[in-house]
Amino acid sequence: MRKLTFAVLAVSLVSVSVAGLKEEINASYGKIAVALKNKDIKAFEKLLRGITTPDFRYVERGTSQTLDQMVANMKMGMGQLGKVTRSKAYVVSVKESRNFATVVAVHDMAGTMVTPDKKTHTMDYVGTMTETYVKFNGKWKLKEMKVAKEVMKMDGKPFDPMGGGTPK
Fold first, then answer.
1. Residue 90: its pLDDT value, please?
2. Are 45 and 99 in contact (CB under 8 A)?
3. Exposure string over 103-135, b if 16+ CB within 10 A, otherwise e
4. Which among 4, 40, 77, 126 is least surrounded, fewest beta carbons within 10 Å?
5. What is the value of pTM for the model shown?
6. Cα separation, 107 vs 7, whole angstroms
7. Which range, of 1-5, 139-143, 156-160, averages the lowest pLDDT?
8. 118 and 82 in contact (C-beta within 8 Å)?
9. Which residue has the higher pLDDT, 155 or 10?
């Protein structure tokens, strides 16, 4: 009976811990989403610095970036958007051990963009991320964010900015 009670308590504690981490991450995502919706890169950077490890890496299409590089690229990308019409992110799943967690999350943004020919287009981005969190000085910190899947659309049609596709 004692073993069963201990097993039930252990499972309950893990469930509470995972729920706590998930809520903590979603709360951070909410603040980051507001900063991005407002195109406030300074707030975005400050929020990220508060939740990442010093050796944080962002990995997209096989290219690894530091936090500084990621923020610089976000600043450039956000500068190309006219208005951000949607910005949200949420946790899909959390697998947690004592000092390590793997999180699958969705990041979703949309906005308008004016191309050199003065036409306004809608841009949509939905990315599924695999994120690694570690305990750092007693707190959960984001160590790596890796793009597992991304879909970009311009005016509702698939679009690959890296492929040089510009709408007519």
1. 97
2. no
3. bebebbbbbebeeeeeeebebbbebbbebbbee
4. 4
5. 0.81
6. 35
7. 1-5
8. no
9. 155
